[in-house]
Amino acid sequence: MPVVQLKCNLCIPERNKHTIVVDEDKSTLPKCNAPTVPGDLTERGCAYAGARGVVGGPVVDVIQMVHAPVGCAYYTWGSRRHLGDGYNWAMPGVLENEANHRRHCYCTDMQEKDVVFGGMDKLKKALLDAFEINKGAKGAFIYTTCTTALIGDDVGLVAKEVSKEVGKPVFACSAPGFCGVSQSKGHHEFNFQFYKWLMKLREEHPEVCLKEEDKTPYDINLIGEYNIDWDLLPVKPLFEKIGIRVLTAFTGNAYLDDLLRLPDAKLNVVHCQRSATYIAELIKQGFDVPYSRVSFFGIQQTAKALRETAAFFGDEAMMKKAEEVIQEELDAVTPALDWYRERLKGKKLAIYVGGPRVWHWIKAMEDLGMEVVACLTTFGHTDDYQKIVERVKPGTLVIDNPNEFEIEEMIEKTQPDLFLTGLKEKYLVRKFGVATLNSHSYECGPYSGFRGLVNFARDIYQAVAAPVWKIAQEEF
Amino acid sequence: MITEIKQIPVEGVKYKHLGIEKKPLTPEYVPPPEELVSKEKRTVCIDPSRTCMPIGAMWATLGVNRAIPFVQGAQGCTTYVRYTFARVFREPALIANASFHEDAAVFGGSKNLIHGLRNLVCRYQPSLISIVTTCSSEIIGDDIQGFLYEALDEMEAEMGPEIHDMVKFVIVNTPSFAGSHVEGYNRASQAFLKTLAKKSGQDSRDIYFIPGQMSTGDIRELKRMFSTMNLPFKMLFDISDTLDCPLTGMPKSVPYYPPGGTQVSDFVRAGDAEAIYSISPAAGSAGVKWLEKRYKVPGFINTMPIGVKNTDKLIKSISETTGRSISDEIRWERGILLDAMADCLHYTMGKRVAICGDPDFVSAATGFVCELGMIPTAILIGTKNDLAAETIKDVCDEYDHSPLILNDSDQFEWEYALKNDAPDVILGHSKCVNISKEIRTPLVRFGFPVYDRVGLQREPVVGYLGGERFLSRIINAILDHHYPDDRVHQ
Predict the structure, then answer these.
(1) In what order do the strands lie in the sheet with A106-107?
(2) Which DSSP string corresponds to B179-246?
(3) Smallest Cα distance from B268 to chain A, Å
(4) What pLDDT digit, counting tens, does each position of A64-79 carry?
């Protein structure tokens, strides 16, 4: 019987299909990508969060305009650690303290009268003001929310009008909070809408495309890499070292001009395969640019990503260089990783993040000798669960879209030494005497690539080895 | 650069090894057009010092024993709020969601509410559920009261008539486009009392307090003070334990419920109270006014007790209301604060200070800095509030200061004022960090939200002893920043 009956679901049987134990033949997958049960203490975010917080938010040199009452804008103001290096000046000679996309919070601050009479005029004026104030901005992204979608504001029209007036690109993303079943819908909407907008923009303004003479045979994009805590830094140079040019990431530390050239690459290398395979697929269909799926977490996977990318170009020298780089990287990290592996070997671990990172990290944790006892995702789809179930041992607990109570029961049942999870759940699970790590924005990253894995291992070790857990369990 | 290091040490990669170079987006500084600095003349809101109304109602609910807010909206409406509580208090926050998807947006949220309440009750057996509305449910026009009756009928059929005694339901209407988090709390204060309070006829000696959005440390300090006064009191919406809960090892049972919080029965008995105080007028006066009107419970609305005079006013008022004389302990505590003020006067006198935060925090803190001989320069009242502006003006008149007071603005305008005329120190929340670093002026963190330093949620700023702690923080920030080492030694 692969379905697990949790106590909290005795009266809510529709949740049972979402909680399984991986069976010997690995044939059962949890039900997923379904609406959340009302009344859940859900860990999911909304579609707006997926569009604004995850996919659009990391773009550095645009005005991130939230068309909403103040809250939706406030909560996405500098809260996600997608870092970037483009700064505006605070005053003469002093750069602002945070990069442009995280420093300020631009919104229309919708009031009751705007809700009654419509907010398009307000949005337009707000955007024009923002462009006047933020001279460093190369364009703007507009996000709608529940409020402005329900009152029917045509943000696309406003985007066009403002773009014409200021002569800079303006993209409107319509992904209100209630659309779809989770933030995953917001990723999806952003991808599709952005691509459609991009196509049109490139048609009307061919000058934004990468010129033929500026292209190289080895141009790639890193798709679905959001530069959380500078995750790009341990990864991008690996490609550069083997002679590959990274045009841009979609969308970590991305600049608008570079994003407009997305279709000019020879290959799209997709990291987060839940939130961004969409655009890679669209570019493949529209421009015949192939894409590959990779992971930059852990030794095995990063090495594989590098090898496969080099193999794609079929260049012998490049493949040889890739092996050299991999060896160089291994030499750099092996002693530190050995130190951690010795101390982490056999520790039990539960992983709960959005989607793909769960199966990326199952492999990465193998590199550290840890044992995965439970896997949970917020918005995984069937393909995510297939990969999870393939990669774990029979007997592993898998929960789709867990709520707070289910997480507690997971902890009770599996008794992990460590729980890789987000900020909200981290404080809950600590009450159970279990170590946790902020796996959404990291404790002290980057965690990606060969070198980032040492940071990841260090933070895991610190979490598990902290004396507090033992002291807390002692009789007093 | 990170990829140049020959061997990564066990400690991992340090920030300096990342080799991040800041790239300016324009060759040089371009000031914003003068006419767009003032919020009045601009449409875009940049850097609001306030957030949405529902979080205020959820905040209040989390201060009630075994109570769970049920948010009638999309999932983001709870998730963002739970992140915020996690950041500020470093604690979990139990908040349920109606899980609005397209069908709810089209057909209304009745199914979500009815199923949601039922699921929440059968899973958690809470003592109280607050139904917190959101922008979407208000725009759709959900008839929450009607849905609740229906939900109760269904729950009665399934779980028996005991359901009516087991769980209380309070509806709080909080469309974010009609006010901020402060107003959300204020509305909750009224909705809870309106729904729950009764008059039994048996008078109680209890004094009721609505603390507003004070941190856990502040509420604890007030409770300690009131206890030393032997005052019989009830603290409504008491988050001091629910959002500051000890680690004791594995809980004996699931689900996790934090201990503490105000008992529902204390709300029910509110009609019998001897008096009720709002000590954060913008977040709580609605509850006080309603209880006074409905049950003739004497209601008092006091400035937040930050600093000497503001605390004096509260203590004197309680003393008069209850006929108790002011105890020696309280006089001693007051003396400690005055002693600290005297010892530090050379550090505070004439120092120029900018303040930013929620109305009650800002208005009370302005009083305190004036008492310290400091000069307020630019004050941002995060949520428009005329009473706070009035209080600030009065105290500044008294001390002959004329700061810039922004009462319906955003941080952009306030920060610009600071750039043009840098103060010696800033009192504000964690969203003021950027301006503090940019103009190289120390920031003393207080109010909501503070998430980038640890332990401050436990450190009080209210009462005499809280004032002493606050004073020390202000001065230490000034010393760190403005005094070379050899001038600090005495």
Answers:
(1) A170-173, A139-144, A62-67, A106-107, B45-46
(2) -BHHHHHHHHHHHHHHHH----SS---PEEEE--S--HHHHHHHHHHHHHTT--EEETT-HHHHTS--
(3) 26
(4) 999 999 999 999 999 9
Instruction: Note the CATH architecture for domain B207-241+259-327.
Output: 3-Layer(aba) Sandwich (3.40)
Q: Given this structure, which CATH class describes domain A47-204?
A: alpha beta
Q: Is B170 helix (H, G, I), strand (E, B) or coil?
A: strand
Q: Report residue A381 CA to chain centroid gap.
A: 15
- Which residues of A are catalytic, by number? 46, 49, 80, 187
C-alpha distance from residue B170 to each of A206, B17, B127, B174, B196 (Å): 58, 54, 11, 13, 8
Structure tokens at B348: 């505070």
CATH fold of B331-481 reads Rossmann fold (3.40.50)
What confidence tens digit (pLDDT) does each residue in B416-466 have? 999 999 999 999 999 999 999 999 999 999 999 999 999 999 999 999 999
For chain B, what are the domain ranges?
53-179, 207-241+259-327, 331-481
From A252, A238, A273, A299, select the one nearest A447 (Cα to Cα). A299
> Domain B53-179: which topology?
Rossmann fold (3.40.50)
Probe site for chain B from A184, A424, A437, A444 (most B CB atoms < 10 A):
A424
pLDDT digits over A154-186, tens only? 999 999 999 999 999 999 999 999 999 999 999
Interatomic CA distance for residues A432 and A415, integer angstroms: 10
Residue A454 is encoded by which pair of tokens? 């040492």
Tens of pLDDT, residues B388-397? 999 999 999 9
Q: Do B207-241+259-327 and B53-179 have the same topology in CATH?
A: yes
Considering only CA atoms, which of A472, A94, A367 is closest in space to residue B434?
A94
Four-CA torsion B74, B75, B77, B80, nearest 10 degrees: -160
A115 touches chain B (CB under 8 A): yes
**Closest of B153, B152, B157, B190 to residue B171, by C-alpha:** B190
Contact call for residues B142 and B119 (beta carbons, < 8 A): no
Distance CA B73, CA A38 (A): 10
Q: What pLDDT is stored for residue A75 in this prediction?
A: 98
Architecture, CATH, for domain A7-39+333-475: 3-Layer(aba) Sandwich (3.40)
Q: Is B47 on the interface with A (CB under 8 A)?
A: yes
Question: A212-328: same fold as A7-39+333-475?
Answer: yes
User: Which helix or strand (DSSP H or E) is residue B158 part of?
Assistant: helix B144-159
Q: pLDDT at position B41, please?
A: 95
Confidence of residue A281 (pLDDT cuts 50, 70, 90): very high
- Contact, A306 vs A269, CB < 8 A? no
| Domain spans of chain A, in order of start | 7-39+333-475, 47-204, 212-328
Q: Please judge whether A108 and B44 are an interchain contact, meaning their C-beta atoms are less than 8 angstroms apart.
A: yes
What is the secondary structure of B261-292 as a DSSP string?
-B-HHHHHGGGG-SEEEESSTTTTHHHHHHHH
A248 phi, psi to nearest 5 deg: -165, 165
- Report DSSP state, residue A211: P
Bridge partners, residue B52, by sequence: B180
B452 touches A at CB < 8 Å: no
CA-nearest residue to A7 within chain B is B123
Cβ–Cβ < 8 Å for B376, B395: no
pLDDT at B305: 98
Instruction: Indicate the average pLDDT of chain A.
Output: 97
Distance CA(B93)–CA(A304), nearest Å, equals 41
Tally Cβ neighbours within 10 Å of residue B107: 11
| Strand A19-21 with A397-400, pairing | antiparallel
With an 8 Å Cβ cutoff, is B291 touching chain A? Answer: no
Contact of A39 with B118, CB cutoff 8 Å? yes
Write the CATH number of the domain with boundaries A212-328.
3.40.50.1980
